[in-house]
Design a protein that fits this description.
single chain; 4 helices; alpha+beta; two-stranded antiparallel sheet
């Protein structure tokens, strides 16, 4: 975006016109609560567990998808390429295993079956058999209503 200030043109960074909203889901029996900070720590492998100490298995939408790229920007403030490079260093040093990528339907099935799984999906995904932790909307975390 170009903006004119006092006769000088300047570039401004702006959010994409079509910023994506994401829902974060876990297995239906997972009662962990999550904050945006913990979500960031999980996806950056700064921690490997939910707040209750149980291990977390991260699932990602396909690396080349617009949704994955937007999620990286909105949550981690990294491009998808920067995130991949960051994660590759973790794998190289033995501090992480390779990222797990899948389409939304496959992710939903994996979360339904794996009590340790956590994933982000487009907010318009039809959810069943999983527990919704919250939303990532415009880079800000919003808790989902509590329903047990």
């Amino acid at each position: 975006m170009l903006v004119l200030f006092s006769g000088c043109w300047s570039f401004m960074l702006a959010k994409p016109l079509h910023a994506a909203d994401f829902v974060v889901v876990v297995h239906k029996d997972n009662r962990s609560e999550i904050t945006q900070q913990l979500l960031m720590q999980l996806y950056l492998k700064k921690t490997a567990a939910f707040a209750d100490g149980k291990a977390a298995t991260l699932l990602h939408l396909p690396r080349s998808s617009a949704e994955h790229q937007q999620f990286c920007l909105e949550l981690l403030n990294l491009t998808a390429h920067q995130y991949q490079s960051y994660w590759s260093r973790l794998v190289f040093t033995g501090n992480a295993s390779n990222l797990q990528f899948a389409n939304a339907d496959s992710i939903l099935q994996q979360v339904q079956q794996n009590p340790a799984a956590i994933a982000y999906l487009p907010a318009d995904t039809a959810l069943s058999g999983v527990r919704q932790l919250g939303f990532l909307r415009d880079g800000q975390w919003r808790d989902a209503p509590v329903t047990y």
